[in-house]
Amino acid sequence: MKHTKLGLITGLMLSVSAGAAVAKDVSLRVADSLPVGHYIAENLLKPFLADVEKSTDGAVGFDYFPAQQLGKAKDMLSLTQTGVADIGYIGASYLADKLPLSSVAQLPGTFNSACEGTMAYWEIAKPGGVLDQAEYAPEGVRALMALALPPYQLFSAKEISGVDSFQGQKIRTSGGSQALAMTKLGSVPVQMSAPEAREALSRGTVDGIVFPYGSVMPYDLAPHLKTATQGLNLGSFVLAYMISQSKYDSLSPEMQKTLTEAGERATKHACAVIDDMVGSDKQKITDAGVTFVTLPEADVAKIRETLKSVGDEWAADLDGRGRPATEVMKAFMAALQ
After folding, report:
1. What's the predicted TM-score (pTM) here?
2. Which long-range contacts (CB under 8 A, 24 or more apart) does 201-205 make?
3. What whole-number distance in Å separates Cα of residue 63 and Cα of residue 3?
4. How far apart are CA 25 and CA 40, in angstroms?
5. Domain of life, per the record (predicted)?
6. Which domains does the chain have, with CATH numbers?
7. CA 171 – CA 87 distance, rounded (Å)
8. Measuring CA to CA, which residue among 244, 48, 30 is closest to residue 136?
9. Burial of residue 300, with CB atoms counted within 10 A of its CB: 0-12 exposed, 13-18 middle, 19 or more buried
10. Could you report the per-residue pLDDT of 272-319, keeping only the tens digit for each?
């Protein structure tokens, strides 16, 4: 399998060829499902990799496999647990059966920016946090860095004019609380990963998608879209790059400290950059022919009121299945303060 080479990142060249990897004291395999050049990898993962290489004077190197080269989004947790990947991209919604509590940061209306959501999520997801103890540690993994995306909007191949436009539309969601939110608004949620969205739109399998501004262009969705909302808060998507606890334990204390500190820095860096990109991302989508629509104030208020109960319903359902969702939600809300 051909390894992907990382470009020049903050003045550092990360060599990922097989020959270069042999020269490292430790070489870690990193995998995700993001297309090459995706803004999440560019602003979260790659600065982390560069930071670690610099901090260790090249003693730690990386083989990076993007674009589902090692497996699909839903397989990343098992790939990380089994050591096929040392560090894997974990999208909570793609693993709702194993990591249902992680979608707490995807509840609609809870935060207004990537950094607001990211830092609150990181507080409960980092090693020792309530989410880590409830969900990640039992799965044998630990988060190295995380990101919550800015509030999602509805992008549609149809006209959007008001809250009634949601009725009956088949909407791609990442599952969990997003699906519940779309159901409450009268839409038909269709769960799928982001890499599947373009084909689904082009074939008419779905009429629209709930997505962040920044992901529309990387997945080449604009040609299949007509209108989009702005100013709504339809939830988010939360992700983390994780390492198995066994792999982490096999590293020296110095390397563990380096990975942990680099992950903290990358988390803070990524959310700030992504918040700054919102305006330019919207402009690129507009330039590609998609029309942004501001819904009437009465409709926006109706949507907010309709979605207000999503969090409590989400928590009650998981509590009933023996998961401490109410505890996790309270911790997340407290971290947002």
Report:
1. 0.91
2. 201/157, 201/172, 201/225, 204/157, 205/170
3. 7
4. 27
5. Bacteria
6. 8-150+237-278 (3.40.190.170), 153-235+280-336 (3.40.190.170)
7. 31
8. 244
9. middle
10. 999 999 999 999 999 999 999 999 999 999 999 999 999 999 999 999
